[in-house]
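Dear colleagues,

For the upcoming journal club I promised to circulate an example of a predicted protein-ligand complex. I picked one with flavin-adenine dinucleotide because it came up in last month's discussion. The inputs are reproduced below in full, followed by the predicted structure.
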Amino acid sequence: MCKENSTKAGISVGKVISLNEVKSGIFHLILKTELVHKNQSVPQSGQFYMLRSSISKVLLARPISVYSCKTQDNFVFVEFLILLKGQGTKELCNLKIDDSVEMTGPLGNTFPLPQEDLQNADEVKIAIIGGGIGVAPVAGFSTNLKPHTYDFYACFKSFSYGLENVKAKNLVITTDDGTEGIKGMLPSVFTADDIKQKNYSVVYACGPEPMLKYVQKVCLEAGITCYLSMEQRMACGLGACLGCTITTTEGNKRCCKDGPVFEGSKLIFSEKKPMERKEKVDNPDLSVNISGVKFENPVIAASGTFGFGTEFQDVIDVNLLGGICSKGLTLEPKPGNTGIRLQETPSGLINSIGLENPGIKVFIEKKLPTMMELKPVAIANLSGSSIETYVEGAKLLDKTEVPMIELNISCPNVKAGGMAFGLDPQAAFEVTNAVRKATSKPLIVKLSPNAPDLKAIAFSVIKAGANAISLVNTFQAMAIDIEKEQFIFDNIKAGLAGPAIKPIALRMVYDICYAIKTLPKEQQVPVIGLGGISTWQDAVEFILAGADAIQIGTSIFANPNCIKEIINGISAWMARKGYSKIEEFKGKMIFN
Ligand SMILES: Cc1cc2nc3c(=O)[nH]c(=O)nc-3n(C[C@H](O)[C@H](O)[C@H](O)COP(=O)(O)OP(=O)(O)OC[C@H]3O[C@@H](n4cnc5c(N)ncnc54)[C@H](O)[C@@H]3O)c2cc1C
Ligand SMILES: Cc1cc2nc3c(=O)[nH]c(=O)nc-3n(C[C@H](O)[C@H](O)[C@H](O)COP(=O)(O)O)c2cc1C
Ligand code: FES
């Protein structure tokens, strides 16, 4: 058992001593670490560490409770029970023996021990409750109590774990599906009447928030004290960022520093609207219609990242896609920019390709026929340096079979034209209007996130005859070589794309979808959302935000299989959620 010897936390590197999957998705991890300060505290039940694998892809460490710990010489062996949830816990659950883990801790407060007389009473006065992975800190805490002086209620979805060290007088297990113990949840075995009948005096609990809210309610009804261990998203874990605050009767409290254990009666839980649940569906229909053109699914390869459709053919099945946008095309061939063209950034990519392309005539002759043989809808991405060159290009494309044109008024990498048309509402109107007159093909206008007033640009291009809008193109960015003391790119500025831009792109897509919904019905046009999409979850977010379809660009470079994963992921999500068509959830967040 651990004993506190001071109050200080520290940063240390833990080595993996053992890691086992105790039950499906639940891992038992033992880390060996040094006490870094002379007076550093040894971990106590209730406390937690911020853990991050040393070769991590996530930015923040993850808070994980101390399950148990032993000290030996200057070393601490800390045990954790981890539920594999997302990327951060996946990394922790996939560690190998001797791998390193960055550890900050021990952090937070501990469960207060019950008064001596409660442990020495003739009848059991203490109830401990663990829900799911929340069993870890309370099971650890139970080892601080005399055996058989407490009852332990452990509630799981379908199987129990983490109870090896629990020496309860009565161990009551519930499972939602009845695979172990009593079928049901905590209310089937623990009510205010039970508390009174059993004469409990104090309750300790950790688990999902609805369960803790219930424990608070029944303890208040029965008039006894409860201590609840809370969970909140955390960045620093040290009380500095205020990202983890919890509302209490004494004002905001930091879960990491003032908690995670709080006296239950002081907590104010928020009211959450329950989610409406629908029946599952089989084989949802992923097809979408954009301005009269049918796409088998809403996933389109973004311009400039998928060549002319065949470049990726050897490594993936390109026919899975709903559509493919060609590389940006100009009337005359373009050699593109000189110097470095690519610069990787954290979760992003800055590019300065400069619209290198073979010109529209060569495209029509050599590239389009093959693009048209593929299943995905072919979209010609049209760029230009002046209104005249845009119009000439549009006239040439109009004579072809290409079903759609994406008008690129947003390329940040060319000196003439490109983004310049996408920054000013009047210029955006003029170029769209001129191209509109030059072609009868459905016209998607691709907007620049660098526009000072994106809504004004969107309304201008709609007024000028755009049939759909796509956004975003890349964000203007820069990089400097600090050794050479030179700009990385010959053009100084270039365009940032990739997962780094996703949340901003999503917000912009939402803003434009929202704005479009304020227009009269006959003026409303579909929106294709893009910018940093790398997973099916990202794609679903864009559609919930209002996008009719999505494009994937940079992420295809990192993982060409993401196309298949995204399409399958959207389909599985729809089936699970009971959506049989995309339009049933498209834009749901706008109306929420
Ligand atoms: C004090 C405390 C103790 C915890 N103890 C344990 C434990 O012993 N075992 C265990 O398996 N889990 C524990 N959790 C929950 C654990 O921190 C989250 O499951 C984990 O952060 C999820 O990260 P992810 O990348 O796997 O999941 P994602 O869902 O992808 O995470 C996305 C973001 O949300 C945050 N987040 C998601 N869920 C939670 C959550 N429940 N609590 C806090 N942040 C969350 C993540 O840290 C990350 O920043 C504890 C949380 C807190 C606050
Ligand atoms: C290497 C590269 C080249 C690009 N070329 C074009 C282009 O020719 N025409 C265009 O409209 N957009 C072009 N883009 C922008 C993408 O189509 C997309 O709008 C942007 O990258 C954001 O999406 P993403 O984060 O999924 O990559 C290019 C992007 C990259 C990374
Ligand atoms: S996580 Fe920063 S204040 Fe709690």
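Two points we might discuss: Residues 502-517 form the longest helix (16 residues). The first strand starts at residue 10 and ends at 23.

See you all on Thursday,
B. R.
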